[in-house]
Amino acid sequence: MRTYDFTPLWRSTIGFDRLFDLVETAQRAGEDNYPPYNIERLGEDRYQISLAVAGFSTDEISVTAEQNTVTIEGNKTDKAQREYLYQGISARPFKRQFSLADHVQVKSASFEDGLLRIELFREVPEAMKPRRIAINGAAPSNVQQIEARVA
């Protein structure tokens, strides 16, 4: 197993604590790949998560958005006893969590053709957008003298 030590980066970065925590959590996460999923960028501030949840219905899946996390859970409610000769479609319960960046919110969720699609949108508040700061102060004295000679 590979592990990386991020200690040297802590000295030269400010405010990235959450990012490093997420990387460390991802390293420790189990290798459960069920259900398979895609993450797509649809535009400048639009994203989509698609999960392949064949065999589940909409009432057997729940999507919960909470702070910077979206959680998708699936639980089969069909308790009927069936005799499978071969069962290739997994119907096991699952819980998949995705960490969202700041200001990314869940816009909607849809279910079609066995794919659960979750639309995400990033909306940065005006107060958080970069803005130019004017520098106040007196002009250097030699600049004023040159302007006086030219005039």
TrEMBL record:
Keywords: Stress response. Residues 28-138 form the SHSP domain. Pfam families: HSP20. Belongs to the small heat shock protein (HSP20) family. This is Heat-shock protein. Signal peptide: none annotated.
